[in-house]
Design brief:
By secondary structure, this protein is of the alpha/beta class. It contains 5 helices and 5 strands.
Length: about 150
């Protein structure tokens, strides 16, 4: 059984705990983190638009990409430590909802957490990217409360 666990800031602990509980016999667990591209792209565009052909070494978009990659690696490391068993760590870039659906293409189970309004059950307890994933996942989904 292959399990994909969507690791996101703020909800990753609940997802990893659910994987430990509900996927203990899984042959492969993939910890998946998605870094959005919108903030670095906006910084690249602003830098290019405002400063033209300035030294690309000062492009804040590049620094933001490095910071995001470092943060993602630390988050995946913490999640792997909490899982306490061998796993695959996967970092993808792009629109989170699309990347999660693609990454879960061959999975037997996808684990993600509610990330919207947690004070009330119902549709608003899922942010739009999570709602998209739940609606379009190519495999069964385990949705947990963080």
């Amino acid at each position: 059984m292959a399990v994909v666990v969507w690791i996101a800031e703020g909800t990753w602990r609940a997802c990893v705990d659910a994987a430990r509980t509900h996927a203990a016999d899984a042959a492969d667990i993939v910890l998946l983190h998605i870094s959005g591209h919108d903030v670095p792209d906006a910084a690249h565009g602003a830098f290019a638009g405002l400063l033209g052909r300035a030294d690309p070494g000062h492009d804040p978009g590049t620094r933001l990409e490095r910071m995001a990659a470092d943060s993602a690696q630390r988050l995946l490391d913490a999640a792997a430590d909490r899982l306490g068993r061998p796993c695959t760590r996967m970092e993808r870039k792009g629109r989170p909802e699309r990347e999660v659906v693609v990454a879960a293409r061959d999975a037997d189970l996808l684990i993600l957490a509610r990330d919207g309004d947690r004070t009330h059950p119902g549709p608003k307890s899922l942010a739009p990217p999570s709602r998209f994933v739940v609606d379009h996942a190519p495999c069964p989904v385990l949705l947990v409360w963080p």
